[in-house]
# Entry
Amino acid sequence: MNEFLLSCDWGTSSFRLRLVDTRSGRVLGEQLLPTGVAATFDTWKIEHDRTEIERETFFSKCLNTQIDALADSLAISLEHVPVVLSGMASSSIGMAELPYANLPFSLDGSQVSVRWFAPRPGFNHRLLLISGVRGPKDVMRGEETQMIGLSDLLTEANRSVLIFPGTHSKHMYIENGQLVDFQTFMTGEVFSVLTSYSILKESTDVADLANGLTRYRANFQEGVRASESPALLHELFAVRTNQLFGKLTRPQNALYLSGLLIGAELRTLFQKPDWRLVLCCDNNLVDFYTEALTVLGLWQHTTRIDADHIRYAATEGHLKIMNHQLTLAETAS
# Structure
């Protein structure tokens, strides 16, 4: 393997590029942007109508701009350093659409769906694009690379459920070193839609949500307990009446709604009482999920992976996948 590797995680709404020392695994520099695949795709469509530039070329050009910026910030040359790219870049709105890998999916990275891109004029880097995984009703792009990056930490139980909170939370079921199933929960997106566009907008205030658990913990816990009801759509309307009848203030109600939705997501884990739960979160959501798991009596079955491991999981996954791909190439030759 080359001495250095460019590790890029290009999500729907964010971009992260890292220079990694492949011998030590140390991150030497980082470039972060709020410009994700979705915005880049929209810009490409406008540019394509004007110049007929190909999508692959346009995305390569955008990526190269950030590689140059990272090189400038480190005062070194990154010419010919290989790139590993994961996330939504392999989707229908990304650099090139790749087919999903299927279940069961090995944690060692041997079953990833990938495509190599040779260097070209204006982009003199060999690039490995990583696709996602599909299940019967679910798909993911990006989390599978994080899972591979975390695989060395998942040895204490034969059966584990990895919980990745977020806009679209993922529960990933791992058995004997393989991903055997996963589920997607639109918890974060539903919360955002309800508090921004629905009738509940006037009943909630999310301005200080990040710190709200400190002040309104009891309201969050009340929401988690209310998620026991099978009539979730009815319980959602109770958010309106909480405020209408003066039971809760708007900030308190936001915490109640958060607890209601997170509780509804996590209650599905009661179906797997003998599986070890692993909370994988590096942002402010970790406190909300820890609290909800505690209220539900699930925290005693839960291991929490520290934030630094989660933060660098995709990069670690890139290193493992690249190593495996290079081994395959050597074997084939």
